[in-house]
Amino acid sequence: MEIMRVKDELVCTRRVPGLGSEDLRILESQSGALSVAVDPVGAPAGSWVFTTSGSAARYALKNPETLTDLTICGIIDQWEVTAAEG
Amino acid sequence: MEIMRVKDELVCTRRVPGLGSEDLRILESQSGALSVAVDPVGAPAGSWVFTTSGSAARYALKNPETLTDLTICGIIDQWEVTAAEG
Amino acid sequence: MEIMRVKDELVCTRRVPGLGSEDLRILESQSGALSVAVDPVGAPAGSWVFTTSGSAARYALKNPETLTDLTICGIIDQWEVTAAEG
Amino acid sequence: MEIMRVKDELVCTRRVPGLGSEDLRILESQSGALSVAVDPVGAPAGSWVFTTSGSAARYALKNPETLTDLTICGIIDQWEVTAAEG
Amino acid sequence: MEIMRVKDELVCTRRVPGLGSEDLRILESQSGALSVAVDPVGAPAGSWVFTTSGSAARYALKNPETLTDLTICGIIDQWEVTAAEG
């Protein structure tokens, strides 16, 4: 699982039906790359989370047919940026 | 899911049968790399989209046996390049 | 799907049974990295192709139990290197 | 499978139900990137391990429905950092 | 499939049961990164091989429940380092 930071919500009205109405978040990786994840835990902007990818990303949701390849798994209780840089 | 920009259509007459007649798009990633995706939402060139990969890319299509590993999931309503660079 | 160029054939007599006698090609990515793909479309050296990876790579073949993770999906009709560099 | 070093435990009280109460570890790759893995073998901090990813990461656990995409497979008996750098 | 060179065996007595007693090899990628693969073909150190990843890595073995995500598929008959560098 990857460690990422929630940057923002993603507003996207025109989407494939298979994504349902899941909340989407823009995440920033440790190297600064941005990606989009489904958020089943309600992670606020700025929090550090870890994500699961691939087929596990679908099983992490109530509806396992949701067409995601990246899902937030949990909010990290405490994360020091210095740890990521060390 | 990755955030990418639609660059062009891809014309490809000689393809494996499993791709059917799906529309193909050339996408550009945030780092400038090019890849090819199936487009079920009709994204025009220049628009910002997000894509799903792996097995989810197949399930995003009406025919889940289409042999894609990258499918456009939705068009982002608003995307500022500065956000991607910030 | 990734855009790659066919560089050469790959001669490999000692292989796992699950690969059958599929034609193997050495492909070069846009960044110059080399990889090996199964070629069901008969792409000549020098041509630009796009490839599918992961489980879709297996389904692209007549025998979906072939043990590939990269399969050529089609030959691109026209590809300008400048487009890849632009 | 990737070769990584155990850096620390990950404390995360708010997580998706599918992760159960599995032990989570922060791992550091050879290039210094951090990620999170489920640890079924009890690897102490500082030890070198190798990990499996993708769907195999789930099957490596007693409960194959655990929503991980990275699982520690084993502890390497002896690993010289110089080998990784050579 | 990726092209890699066999560097060494991997000794690992403490491993998850799902790996069985498969032979493990340390492989070096073209860019010098090290990873671990299951070796069903008996590739000697120094030889160039190509590997399959993801779910195909499991199907390449006699026991498809082996928990690998990287398996050696075959030994390349002839590989010139200059080809990899060209």
TrEMBL record, chains A, B, C, D, E:
Keywords: Bacterial microcompartment. NCBIfam families: carboxysome_B (TIGR02704). This is Carboxysome peptide B. InterPro entries: CsoS4B, EutN_CcmL, EutN_CcmL_sf. It comes from the Bacteria. It comes from Acidihalobacter aeolianus. GO terms for cellular component: bacterial microcompartment. Gene3D superfamilies: EutN/Ccml. Its main location: other. The keyword tRNA processing does not apply. It is found in: Bacterial microcompartment.
